[in-house]
Amino acid sequence: MQVKKPLKKITSIVLAMAMISSVAPVYGANIPTLQVNGISQPLQVSPIIEDNTRLVGLREIFEALGTTVSWNKDTGAIVAKNIDTEIKLIPGRKIAYKNGTQVELTAAPKRVDGNIMVPLCFVGELFGAEVIWDSDNNIIQIDTTPEKPVEEVKLVEYPVLTINEIGTKITYRQAIDKALKNNVSLKILEEQAKTIEEQQKNARNAVIINALPSDGVNAIPEQMIQENLAHLGAISALVQTDYGVEAQKYQREITEGAIKYQVKVYFDSIKSLKKAIELSSKALELDKTNLDITKKKAELGQESGYNKIKAEQDYSKKQRELELLKKNLDDLYIYLNRLIGANEKERFVLDYNAEYTPMDMDEIQLNAFIERALVRDPSIMLQKENVKVAEFNLNSYVNITGQVSVNDSWNMRNNALAKTKLEETQAKQNLRDNLNTTYNEIKRLEEKYEVNALALKQAKAQYDILKAQYDLGMIIEANLKEGELAILMAQIELEETIANHAQKLYTFNNSFLLTR
Questions:
Q1: Residue 35 phi/psi, 5° resolution?
Q2: Which of 2, 11, 322, 395 has the most crowded Cβ, counting Cβ within 10 A?
Q3: Burial grade of 28 (CB within 10 A; 0-12, 13-18, 19 or more)
Q4: Of the candidates 442, 436, 441, which has an alpha carbon nearest to the alpha carbon of residue 366?
Q5: Would you place residue 144 in the very low, low, confident or very high pLDDT band (cuts 50, 70, 90)?
């Protein structure tokens, strides 16, 4: 039986056809031209050849095919979307992702004069289009509507881990909003902010009042000393309140970031544990089948009593492990519900999935990222404010004649300044070390992702063999189910790696979390 491949209609092409006359313009042979479904337009970005691969401008070609293109500045990833396709790729990497599935490119995308260039053949693979390069006329021909008969192929249906959940749905964003509103530490910081702002206002008024001059010539030295000391004290109080305002701002940023990260960890952990429970339940069903077979064999004298007892003990052990997983899930829900201010018995359906986007950053870019973090990280900014206050406290400790009063109190302030400077230096070094360590952990997780993806591919290939053997009556259903479990286990391991990678990437971009 033959079926026709559905025609892919690109909205922008249809609109273009309505606006352009039936006779397509003819461009000179020396001008690079793009021809989509017979409609021509000049190319602004000329194709290039590298390693025998023709590269074309991604944005210009993709947008001509009705696709929107965007760039993620945090990860360096380029995302192209149309109605039913999402493409992710990173310049310099020979791997792209089509609707989450990894695709290997013939050449790595590269940036040339501000344009991202991709292999021309890659365009055809993405859009299921026929792509022809007419070198004589310098024309790229793309046909998105071929009507070619294809043979109907019966694909193997691989097992998918489905979790049937009943309950109220909650998104990651909704949970964050609830957690921020419910957090006691943030409420305390809000009250402290009001108090500090009032103290700051009073301190400013005190500086103005104590800045009034004394009676000039008639003022006695003691009076001048007292007035200057009062003015100095008012300035010191104002500096302290200014510091309090800045410190409160940075502390709030740190607290909010930690809360958001907590929500993310709980979401990832709950999603992962639910799948582990479902997988464990399926494995237990298979174990029960094998146990029944062992018991039958023991009754027929084909299996030893020892093996029968051991099989029963192993089955009981796995039952207890499943119950422990369920208890751990209950605990995680309790922690999440406390965080967001929900009833502890509530079991939300989490509308959330971690996404995998590999990091595009070399050593030079890493060093630049670290230097930027040293001047914007709120935990470092808090240390800087501590140094400013310590410096002011030391500089303000002089007598009225301008001479430094060297005594125990002055020495204490001097030591306090030295201590805060050392703490700032140590905090910066810790941040450098933590970012370097986290960067290496992210790269290792990306290597693990490739290994997990390959393991899943191999598990599916092995399942293909088992399915063919089962259809021929060469193996029993239990053997086939073992192959199904192998696929599900590989899928869970891959998803756990994705979740861990996303968490590490989050802490890397919010570096103050690395010191908590």
A1: -125, 110
A2: 322
A3: exposed
A4: 436
A5: confident
Q: Dump pLDDT digits (tens) for 413-448.
A: 889 899 999 999 999 999 999 999 999 999 999 999
CA-wise closest residue to 405 among 223, 225, 211: 225
Q: Which two tokens stand for residue 53?
A: 């691969």
How many residues are given for the chain?
Answer: 516
Distance CA 167, CA 178 (A): 18
Please give the Cα distance from 483 to 464 (Å, whole number): 9
**HSE (side-chain half, CA atoms, 13 Å) at 105:** 27
H-run or E-run covering 319: helix 305-340
Longest dimension (CA), the chain: 120
**DSSP letter string, 197-242:** HHHHHHHHHHHHHHTS---GGG--HHHHHHHHHHHHHHHHHHHHHH
R_g of the chain, CA atoms, integer Å: 34
Rounded CA separation 436/413 (Å): 35
Q: Report whether pLDDT(29) > 50.
A: no
Task: Average the pLDDT over 485-490 and give the result.
Answer: 92
For residue 467, CA distances in Å to 41, 196, 457, 470, 491 come to 50, 70, 15, 5, 19
What does the buried/exposed string (b/e) look like for 258-289 if buried means 16 or more CB atoms within 10 Å of the residue's CB?
ebbbbbbbbbbbbbbbbbbbbbbebbbeebee
- Angle at the Cα of 206 from the Cα atoms of 201 and 211, rounded to 5 degrees: 135
pLDDT value of residue 207: 58
Residue 146 has pLDDT above 80, yes or no: no
Is residue 37 predicted with pLDDT exceeding 80? Answer: no
CA of 451: how far to CAs of 447, 490, 497, in Å? 6, 10, 10
The residues, any chain, with a CB within 8 Å of residue 422's CB and separated by 6 or more, are none
Closest CA to 56 of 145, 168, 140, 158: 140
Inform me whether the pLDDT recorded for 455 exceeds 90. Answer: yes
Measuring CA to CA, which residue among 516, 513, 1 is closest to residue 257? 513
Among residues 262, 265, 270, which one has the least CA distance to residue 163?
A: 270
